[in-house]
């Protein structure tokens, strides 16, 4: 067979030649809608690539982006790796101090920044040493002195001089940092090869998320979070229409775009999908939707979400699990043939599990006794391997206990694995509650609580206990206008769980604190508990 390197220019060529007329649509910071075709996109991407070389970017150099999801960000996603350099989207929800750390740690040479995000850049600008700052113009204000205008830079690039990267497929193409809740962010380098293989996995209907040329895909997940789950590369590969929401991630703005652009596929974390459901429920006839699938990932699937979207709107919520360390897709809870004729309720139960590994990903679980049996009840830490799973962290980050001696990634997720290989995440290892030696799943309790009609959100943490060592404690956010008591919730849970699983206490709060990528920040809740309870 031919020794064809799996490199990103292949996707660019395919998008340009096969999908020239298909569209890429963006909502810009001024709320206007920008639309152009893959043909326009490819031409501008090549100009940007050449222009970056003229500015001194060579193979291996890092080019950072500080941008929302929009077409110019997509251009950088391709232009940078297509000349052998490394694109590094910065998490714009990081603190200025974290941003300073990652830009210096990655040794970013050039920064491409949204004009509307310049105030954020100004906060860490003096402590980083990027050689050029290119600003994407987005307002009527002039670009401040000392910065380059993205459109001027691009105009200076001559498309005919574009020389696509033809090197080794294992060359780094993309960089991102984990958004962990403790310690410094850790860097990861995705290679051309890993991105290409991952992009293919997203196409697989049987096991991936099944995006095709007919889809109109809108990544709600930010392009700075695990490469928007690989969707931009995948969509360019398949020719799916891409819709980018810009900075407007509220339910109303998203629903408007879903309707106006006839979006068929989207992906986001549970909190965003919950806000979309709430908005829809407030006036179910208001929007005409074309969505077939909403991929959910990043945190566990609340059961009511999959049930409500299916029953009320005929939309499948597909549960996926992954990690930044795995590009990020690991598993999907697809409905297999033996579940096809199962009752809806059984299918919803299945959908709340994290699902089966996608092709190329292998998994196993381990506890203190060794590898756990695939019996659906033994629990242990999930370990994974595959061609898009990181083998190490970038630079000097301490790998800690993240990798086994035989090279599997230790995920920190505590799971059971069914006989047929379906995983169910019970907890993060650091959130596990061990009460009197018995293990309690905070995820299961949260999921059940969020199924109560008066509860908007719930997070369960472990608190110290003299007798039982640890006990569960629930923080609950009631729905607007609803009142609910601890006794009511305890009674509600008692129908499902053993007595010792019932939370020791409940506290009612306005909002659950979140990480930079929208997950529950349980460490902040633990701190709060200790502050308030000594
Ligand atoms: P990140 O690297 O920010 O994507 O975070 C990865 C972690 O998010 C995983 O190790 C899990 O703990 C959690 N996670 C991702 N997807 C899911 C899911 N579907 N259910 C439960 N936890 C998830």
What amount of the residues lies in strands? 15-25%
Shape: globular
User: Uncertain regions: pLDDT < 50 for 5+ in a row?
Assistant: none
Oligomeric status of the shown chains?
Answer: single chain
Q: Which CATH-level-2 architecture of the largest domain?
A: 3-Layer(aba) Sandwich
- Gyration radius, to the nearest Å? 23 Å
- Distance between termini? 67 Å
Structural class: alpha/beta
Query: What is the level 1 CATH name of the largest domain?
Result: Alpha Beta
- The largest beta-sheet arranges its strands as 2-1-11-10-12-13-14-15-16
CATH 4th-level superfamily of the largest domain: ANL, N-terminal domain
Number of domains as seen in the coordinates = 3
The hetero molecules present are:
adenosine monophosphate
> What is the tally of beta strands?
26
DSSP helix count? 16
CATH topology (fold) name of the largest domain: Rossmann fold
Give the proportion of residues in helices.
Answer: 25-40%
Largest sheet: number of strands, sense, barrel closure? 9 strands, mixed
Arithmetic mean of pLDDT: 94
Describe the protein's architecture and organization.
With 534 residues, this protein is of the alpha/beta class. It has 3 domains: 9-19 and 34-191, Rossmann fold (3-Layer(aba) Sandwich); 250-429, ANL, N-terminal domain (Rossmann fold, 3-Layer(aba) Sandwich); 433-533, ANL, C-terminal domain (GMP Synthetase, Chain A, domain 3, 2-Layer Sandwich). It has 16 helices and 26 strands. It has a 9-stranded mixed β-sheet. A 5-stranded parallel β-sheet has the order 4-3-5-6-7. The chain has a 5-stranded antiparallel β-sheet with strand order 18-17-19-20-21. Helix 1 packs across helix 8 and helix 9 crosses helix 10 (270-282). The chain is globular. Bound molecules: adenosine monophosphate. Adenosine monophosphate (AMP) binds at residues 178-179, 226, 297-300, 319, 321-324, 328, 354, 411-413, 425, 428, 517.
């Amino acid at each position: 067979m031919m020794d064809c390197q799996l490199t990103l220019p292949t996707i660019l060529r395919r998008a340009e030649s096969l999908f020239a007329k298909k569209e890429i649509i963006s909502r810009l910071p001024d709320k206007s809608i920008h639309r152009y075709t893959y043909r326009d996109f490819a031409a501008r991407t090549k100009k940007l690539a050449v222009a970056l070389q003229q500015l001194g970017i060579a193979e291996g150099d890092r080019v950072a982006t500080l941008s929302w999801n929009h077409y110019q960000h997509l251009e950088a996603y391709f232009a940078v790796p297509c000349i052998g350099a490394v694109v590094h989207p910065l998490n714009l929800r990081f603190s200025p101090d974290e941003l300073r750390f990652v830009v210096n740690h990655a040794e970013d040479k050039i920064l491409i920044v949204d004009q509307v995000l310049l105030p954020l850049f100004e906060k860490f600008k003096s402590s980083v040493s990027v050689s050029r700052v290119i600003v994407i113009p987005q307002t009527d204000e002039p670009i401040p002195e000392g910065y380059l205008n993205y459109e001027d830079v691009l105009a200076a690039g001559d498309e005919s001089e574009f020389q696509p990267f033809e090197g080794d497929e294992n060359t780094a193409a993309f960089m991102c940092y984990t958004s962990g809740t403790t310690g410094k962010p850790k860097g990861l380098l995705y290679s051309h090869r890993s991105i290409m293989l991952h992009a293919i996995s997203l196409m697989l209907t049987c096991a991936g998320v099944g995006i095709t040329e007919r889809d109109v895909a809108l990544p709600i997940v930010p392009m700075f979070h695990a490469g928007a789950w690989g969707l931009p590369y995948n969509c360019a590969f398949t020719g799916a229409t891409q819709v980018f929401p810009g900075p407007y991630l509220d339910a109303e703005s998203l629903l408007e775009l879903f309707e106006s652009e006839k979006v068929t596929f989207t992906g986001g974390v549970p909190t965003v999908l919950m806000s979309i459901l709430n908005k829809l429920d407030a006036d179910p006839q208001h929007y005409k939707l074309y969505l077939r699938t909403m991929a959910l990932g990043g945190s566990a699937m609340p059961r009511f979400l999959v049930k409500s979207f299916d029953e009320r709107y005929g939309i499948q919520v597909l549960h996926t699990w992954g990690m930044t360390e795995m590009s990020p897709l690991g598993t999907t809870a697809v409905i297999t043939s033996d579940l096809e004729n199962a009752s809806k309720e059984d299918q919803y139960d299945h959908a709340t599990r994290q699902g089966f590994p996608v092709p190329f990903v292998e998994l196993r679980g381990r506890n203190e006794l060794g590898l756990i049996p695939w019996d659906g009840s033994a629990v242990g830490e999930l370990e994974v391997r595959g061609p898009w799973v990181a083998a190490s962290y970038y630079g000097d980050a301490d790998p800690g206990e993240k990798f086994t001696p035989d090279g599997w990634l230790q995920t920190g997720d505590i799971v059971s694995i069914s006989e047929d290989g379906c995983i169910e995440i019970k907890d993060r290892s650091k959130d596990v509650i061990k009460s009197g030696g018995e293990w309690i799943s905070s995820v299961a309790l949260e999921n059940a609580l969020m199924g109560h009609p008066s509860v908007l959100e719930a997070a369960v943490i472990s608190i110290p206990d003299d007798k039982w060592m640890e006990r569960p404690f629930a923080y609950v956010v009631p729905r607007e206008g609803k009142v609910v008591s601890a006794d009511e919730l305890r009674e509600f849970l008692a129908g499902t769980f053993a007595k010792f699983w019932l939370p020791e206490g409940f506290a009612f709060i306005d909002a659950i604190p979140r990480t930079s990528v929208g997950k529950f920040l349980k460490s902040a809740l633990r701190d709060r508990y200790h502050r308030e309870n000594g």
